[in-house]
Structure formats: structure tokens, C-alpha cells
Design brief:
Layout lengths: L5 E4 L16 E5 L4 E4 L18 H23 L3 E6 L3 E6 L5 E8 L2 E5 L6 H14 L9 E4 L9
Parallel strand pairs: 6-8
Antiparallel strand pairs: 1-2, 2-3, 4-7, 5-6
Amino acid sequence: MAEYSAEVLWLRGEQPFVDSRYSRRHLLRFDGGVEVPASSSPHVVPLPFSDAAAVDPEEAFVASLASCHLLWFLAIAAGRGYRVDRYRDRPTGVMGRNGEGKLAMTLVILRPEVCFSGDRLPTDDEIRRMHHAAHEECFIASSVRSEVRCEPVLEAPPG
């Protein structure tokens, strides 16, 4: 069993804090040394108390699902002998009320566009099957209660 960790750091500085007028900007640190500016979403906490340029938890959630799907798709395509030149996804997440009436990310839609090259190119049906297999293997998608859909763009532009 593997264990994963990150560091989340917020500092009050000179902000009064108890009046709720404090910055939600904080830092995410990962074990490889990457530091990512983070904040609440401006949709949740208004500016200037949120930082629109920083990654918010909702965006990180959507990106995590898309990243896991990408990594599984690449492994499956390589294992089946298909050469992937480019993989691009522009996933979206929808915040709404779940079955218990709580605010939650209720739907994530992945929209991967994949470009292949070489002598052996997959059919649209094979691409769909590889995306289905990637979705089934993605442990991030298996870890959430939100609906996660994959709607591959089958006619990806070259390059």
C-alpha cells in the first residue's frame, strides 16, 4: 500500500482574521518540490478574499480526475501498440446539491482529444474502449461519489 502526502500552508500575517475579512490564499507543496498557489474559488468566497489566479480546490479536483484518466489512457494505448502524439483535455466540473442536499461537485466531464500517429491507428470504437478502460482503472474516479463522464473528442486536430 502506498501513502501520499502534501503540505497545505496558510499564514495569517497582519490580517485581523476574526472579522472574516482575511485572504484565503495559501500554498500547496508536493513531495517533488512543486509549490502551487491556492485559494478558495471566487465563486465561493468573493474577491479580494479569494485569488482568482490561484488554483482552487474545485479546479484541483477536476484536474486530478483528468490527470489520472490521462495517465491510464497513455498506458493502455502504449500497451495496445498505439502511438500517442498529443493528449489534451479540457475537463469541467459542476457544483450542485447532492442526494443529501449538500453542496458537492456532482458531475465531472472529461473531454480528451487524442492524436495518434504511426502505421497502426485505432478506430473510433477502439478509442472509446481505451477511454472506458482508463476510466475503469482510474483510482481517483473510483474514489469519488461524483458522476465522472468521459466524452472523448474523436476528431482531434493534428499535432
